[in-house]
Amino acid sequence: RPVISRSSDQMTPLPFITHSVEKYLELFHLPQEKLKEVSARLKRDLIRGLGKHSHHRAAVKMLPTFVRATPDGTEKGDYLALDLGGTNFRVLHVRVVEEQQRVLKMDSKICAIPQEIMLGTGEQLFDHIAACLSEFLDSQDLKGQTLPLGFTFSFPCEQKEIDKSILIRWTKGFNCSGVEGRDVVQLLKEAIRRRGDYDIGSVAMVNDTVGTMMSCGYRDQSCEIGMIIGTGTNACYMEEMKNVKRVEGEAGRMCINTEWGGFGDDGSLRDIQTEFDVVVDQTSINPGVHTIIWFQLLKYKDLLLPPFSNEQLFTQRTSERHVFGRNRSTNILTELGVKWDPVDVRVVRLVCDTISSRSARLCAAALATIANRIRVNRGLDHLKTTVGVDGTVYRKHPNFSEELQDTVRLLVPKCSISFLVSEDGSGKGAAMVTAVAQRLALQSRLLEDSDGEDEEVEEDEEEEEDK
Question: Which region ranges are annotated with the description Disordered (predicted)?
């Protein structure tokens, strides 16, 4: 390590960084041509995931959501939203005001799920949810109304219809018996019926990424892509029905939940996988799953200087705080009791910046693939669209969003993409999915009624002609 002055608290320029540090970090650099290759591979995986016979072996699952339209601004009314994805769940009452073109979140309640219920029977879990929903309706004076409900259920499910979703397996510490392999909407409705003191209307199952797209779609009707970049990453978009081979019908569009976090799990990105990706994957809870580090602070034993072997520094919570708080690095290291000097802090900062830069560029390549697919699907020379986006990394990292947006512009110059940060995708977004489903159902009923009238008119006209 070169000898430099320690008299200033100012971060020193980069020349002090040793050749070995630069050698390691060079592995994370993805030039534009390599990003284009990554995008082309994802394009092939998207097509494989949409296929009727190729879906089962696809790394990118491309799950149909049965959401068949985005908001058009005419949605209105009162809705309930239920958000279950951890040890707490939320119940919300959402009012959509058409005249003001905005969603008003009226009120919400957070309910805890005790450990004994998390590990009990499915009936106990859904009875507990139904009881909390009952208390919330009482507090809002809504018991007399039968309101539609958007249900964000953040566990691995196979969705069969907008209101039918089969739990594949429990995660996040839940292990309620009698639920895996069953329709969670049906279980919720049965629990409400057992109570008998209120009822709910139609139910729409909502993925959190879809909720992000839909909450932004009410504010900006050109929003047809949803993206989350937080602890994990995922995206959804509006695909042409004719390309969704696993669902009957060719007319219109359907929102597809890509589950793009699985991209590379089949080894297709091995050429950009570093030795550090391999170590992190092998020591993770789920080896072989989500093998590329989209965003993670790694433990560079050979790279960082001795003071940074402190285990505390590499906990997830600390690493996120370190990356997000650019001006707080020294405070955090001091708080952890790590002896540091400006050179050491600069090295750690450089590692963080390099890894987050790779993450932003990978996300940009994936987003470019989806935007270009929409453009080609619609036969457009130029696409103008909006991405609804959420997640702590996108929201709080000091330069992640800027690098992602700049990279996307370079990769898909034929697409003009705006970005809109979501407001409560699992709450307002879930209500909006329900509102759109109701609007489409009403339109369908109106069409059926008018078709019947046309037939009657035609029969009357034929009778007149016979006379």
Answer: 445-467
